[in-house]
Amino acid sequence: MRIVHTEASLGWGGQEIRILSESRGLIGRGHEVHLLCPPEARIYTEAPRWRVPVTALPIGRKRPIGLKVLFEWFWRNRCDVVCTHSSTDSWLTALTLLAMGRPVPMVRMRHISAPVHNNPPTRWLYTRATTRIVTTGEALKNQLIKHNRFPAERIDSVPTGVDATRYRPGDRAGMRAKLGLPHDRTLVGIVATLRDWKGHEYLIEAIKGLPVELVIVGDGPRRQILEAFVKEKQVDHQVRFAGDQADVVPWLQALDIFVLPSFANEGVPQALIQAMMTTLPCITTHAGSIAELAIEGQTALVVPTKDSGAIRAALERLLADEALRKKLGEAARRHCEENFSYQRMLDRMEAIYRHVRW
Description:
13 strands, about 40% helix, alpha/beta, about 15% strand, seven-stranded parallel β-sheet, Rossmann fold, six-stranded parallel β-sheet
């Protein structure tokens, strides 16, 4: 099949990584995959590293020029299906295909749990303009069914899959030496774009005074705000900002505990799957579709959102119970291998694209 992805977002996070990860996997299965995105988008510069063909188009905003360039591109390039990812590129693509007589089907992928508006234009976009809706978690799918009353039979939930052969336990001491991390402290970590809904502040508050060091992997718009917050809370000596990392595997393998205190906008977070695949004991919330991963007391410790006290209590519980840490980590990996594998994601997306192809 010839599959085209459109992405208007300029940011970088799980959504963009999912696009590239899926694209690379389907290219490996013999399909032709192409990405259309703005030239200033981070995904545009990352795509070649993932070996995903990409074309820069001015589709970062809802403007007539976006319709024009998409019309011209689709007129010159045949494809079997188009998958859109953000609001802007979904509207531009839907209107372009409408003007062209809908020559190919459109799949609308929803990565986050932010509400979808209930108004006639949006309903047209998700029902008549879209052949299939794909969400990255069951909670997102149920939200569209219950809140928006979109037809359940036209919506699929396909969480992002993670390669278990890559994300696996490693030599903790060796990785710490390689990364320059202390060998004599318990390392608590989070891997996430520095956005407000990831809940970094609550985790920073929770570790104050505990015998741990917090490793924050990732970058984003709140970097300076979080650095200032660390100083305000007087935990400079306990927090390390590692920045963006092209390969997070060594960082996960160096940690003792993983925490993701998100309170909004989540599907099934890739970073949490990756941490679980690495057999890390995890503390998280049930924001978005995280409940598909985090089963309280079985695959993770689940805390209320925006509650630094609950995070601290969960950390203290794990610090005091090595057997519990081992039990949660091993159970989490088994759960992810069975339900969130990379090949399972590719199988399901491949089947959806074949099903909608005209």
